[in-house]
Known about the structure:
The chain is about 15% helix and about 25% strand. By secondary structure, the chain is of the alpha+beta class.
Amino acid sequence: MRNRNLSIVIIVIMAVVATSALALRCRYCEGGTTVTCAYCDGNGKVDCNYCGGTGEITCDFCEGDEYMRCSDCFGKGKIKFNGDTETCTTCNATGRIVCEYCVAGKMACEMCGGYKELTCVICGGNGEVTCGACGGTGQREE
């Protein structure tokens, strides 16, 4: 009778093991529910794609030339005043003035504000994302 009961217990255990999955730690997140963001390599930041990570762009006003058209003479170098034509003193008759919006033809990037980086849109700046293999449970079935 004892051997028969033991046999029944073993059969029941084998049936339970065969029909139910064993919960194991996920091999990707190692049971931690999150993994390193592959897009930003866990930094939470990515290079700005608008300026290429330099933090600056070519000036929109002078197109990188450092000079722009004189607003007093409209680039002609001369101004009409009371019927007479006079030399423009703002630009010294060159028709161009130093661009007031940039330095050396460059200005801060409009997208990153000159910081060269943006917050990663995939992980929201956390550097980690929910594990896709286990759905964030930390376990996998096998």
